[in-house]
């Protein structure tokens, strides 16, 4: 039997089987293809695209149209990975009705396999309504970048016992609301472990230590394509940016020195056709 699409059930089974889940972000067709070829379980079309692709300072300005455009491109590359589409800021915060309509748009127009929403206890009723509408939802707790300014910036969350307990409450509320998995971002490793133990669905960490059910990283951070700032929790597996700049500089030099294109990159024309053409234009 050939390779199959990763389903919500496969993702949940990974936790029962004790197998770690591997998740990464992608924003376009080539990265969707590469994620599939490398065999990751889950691809997130994150609203982090606002920062690493669109050059914005944060994720707040990202629109539904931006998300749909990028989800469509990733979906053309991903045949096997489960693709999660991120709900942008204010697409689910205004009302439950808006949330269902917008989650539906990401699924119908974008074509993703599930949607992700930031928030805990406060958003549990919204999550429940979207799940009841038949849309699989992934939660996102701890540091929630869309509301980073309300949380005091892009900072670790759950430092003291009260704040940590609130995050465990968030996780439990999301599980009760029906999420199939959740992201936990930028919290102390022992807290993330307690969260993973407190719920029966997979808890996927970013900046949350090793004792969770899987890991996610922003791909442009992980491969050194975006290096404006590098969060403490990012491991750079390569530094691709200088390699790309070197290639562009070499191209520029070749063009200026007239060594590109060479005959091997050019199309030729039959000599008699060329002669005929020259004659025709000189008449
Ligand atoms: O938008 C995103 O890429 C995310 C990850 C940081 C999990 O939400």
Could you give a short description of this structure?
The protein is an alpha/beta fold.
Task: Please describe the structure with a list of short key phrases separated by commas or semicolons.
283 residues, alpha/beta, TIM Barrel, 8-stranded parallel beta barrel, 43% helix, binds 3-methyl-2-oxobutanoic acid
Written description of the protein model:
By secondary structure, the chain is α/β, with parallel strands linked by helices. The chain folds into 2 domains: 8-238, Phosphoenolpyruvate-binding domains (TIM Barrel, Alpha-Beta Barrel), CATH 3.20.20; 243-282, no CATH class. It has helices at 8-17, 29-38, 49-52, 64-77, 96-110, 124-132, 161-177, 189-198, 219-222, 240-256, 271-282; strands at residues 21-25, 42-45, 82-86, 114-118, 137-142, 181-185, 203-206, 214-217. Strands 1-2-3-4-5-6-7-8 form an 8-stranded parallel β-barrel, surrounded by 6 helices. Helix 5 crosses helix 6 (124-132) and helix 6 runs parallel beside helix 7. The site of 3-methyl-2-oxobutanoic acid has 12 residues, from strand 6.
């Amino acid at each position: 039997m050939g390779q199959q699409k990763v389903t919500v059930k496969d993702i949940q089974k990974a936790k029962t089987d004790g197998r770690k889940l591997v998740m990464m972000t992608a924003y376009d067709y080539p990265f969707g293809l590469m994620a599939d070829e490398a065999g990751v379980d889950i691809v997130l079309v994150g609203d982090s695209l606002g920062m690493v692709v669109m050059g914005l300072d944060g994720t707040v300005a990202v629109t539904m149209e931006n998300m749909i455009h990028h989800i469509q491109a990733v979906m053309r590359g991903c045949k096997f990975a489960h693709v999660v589409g991120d709900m942008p800021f204010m697409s689910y915060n205004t009302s439950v009705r808006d949330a269902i309509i917008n989650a539906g748009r990401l699924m119908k127009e974008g074509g993703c396999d599930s949607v992700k929403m930031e928030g805990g206890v406060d958003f549990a009723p919204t999550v429940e309504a979207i799940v009841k509408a038949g849309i699989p939802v992934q939660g996102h707790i701890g540091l929630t970048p869309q509301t980073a300014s309300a949380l005091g910036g892009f900072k670790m969350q759950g430092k003291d016992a009260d704040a940590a307990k609130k995050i465990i409450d968030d996780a439990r509320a999301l599980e009760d609301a029906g999420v199939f998995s959740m992201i936990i971002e930028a919290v102390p490793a022992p807290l993330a472990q307690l969260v993973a133990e407190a719920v029966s669905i997979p808890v996927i960490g970013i900046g949350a230590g090793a004792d969770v059910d899987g890991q996610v990283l922003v791909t442009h951070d992980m491969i050194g394509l975006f290096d404006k700032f590098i969060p403490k929790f990012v491991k750079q597996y390569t530094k691709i940016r200088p390699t790309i700049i070197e290639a562009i500089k070499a191209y520029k030099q070749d063009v200026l020195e007239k060594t590109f294109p060479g005959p091997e990159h050019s199309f030729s024309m039959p000599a008699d056709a060329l002669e005929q053409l020259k004659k025709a234009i000189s008449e």
